[in-house]
Design brief:
The model has no long low-confidence stretch (mean pLDDT about 95). The two termini are about 25 Å apart. A two-stranded parallel sheet has the order 1-2. The protein is built from 10 helices and 2 strands, in the order αααααααβααβα. The protein has a single domain, classed as Endonuclease III, domain 1. Helix content is about 55%, strand content about 0%.
């Protein structure tokens, strides 16, 4: 029997995300943008809700192509607000567009968003050695710092808790519990 982090539960979509994606170091800007946006969309909702709508988000937001999204206008926003397959929150939808523009600006400054975000951990993931789910923080000094820097740049829906969840999702931190089968898999990929 496979032992995994409890939050994965029994829902197939959550288990698949846990088993194949969460915590795996990600370095492609396209994936980083998608996960940043999805974490922002989760604000006030469950991750399960976001995962169930992920394919709808991909269709609605041009497969998370930030170059296309950065050019969205008010007509596109209105169209998105009618799309029942996504989270129809005007502030969140507008943040997707704002964040796409700022994402591109960071790419221009740093060569890639990957270079920007991973420099906060010197390009080496942090292995937190969490023994239980209660050991996993909602945010850290590092997520506070990243959130503050991104807010200063104008990003939206990137509070410290969202940024910490993003750090977990992209593998900047390995928060799989030490008893979870994924912990060692991720740890080996960190070397």
């Amino acid at each position: 029997m496979v032992t995994r982090c409890e939050w994965a539960g029994n829902e197939p979509l959550m288990r698949e995300y846990h088993d194949k994606e969460w915590g795996t170091p990600q370095h492609e800007d396209q994936i980083l943008y998608e996960l940043l946006i999805l974490e922002g969309m989760q604000a006030g909702l469950s991750w399960s809700t976001v995962l169930k709508k992920r394919e709808n988000f991909r269709k609605a937001f041009d497969n998370f192509d930030y170059k296309i999204i950065s050019k969205y206008d008010e007509n596109k926003v209105e169209k998105l607000l009618l799309d029942k397959g996504i989270i129809r929150n005007r502030l969140k939808i507008n943040s997707v567009i704002t964040n796409a523009k700022l994402f591109i600006k960071i790419q221009e400054e740093s060569g890639s968003f990957n270079n920007y975000i991973w420099k906060f951990v010197n390009n080496k993931p942090i292995d937190n050695q969490c023994k239980s789910m209660s050991d996993i923080p909602a945010h850290t000094e590092l997520s506070d710092l990243i959130s503050k820097d991104m807010k200063k740049r104008g990003f939206k829906f990137i509070g410290t808790t969202i940024i910490y969840a993003f750090m977990q999702a992209i593998g900047m931190v390995n928060d799989h519990a030490t008893y979870c089968f994924r912990h060692e898999e991720i740890k080996k990929s960190m070397v």
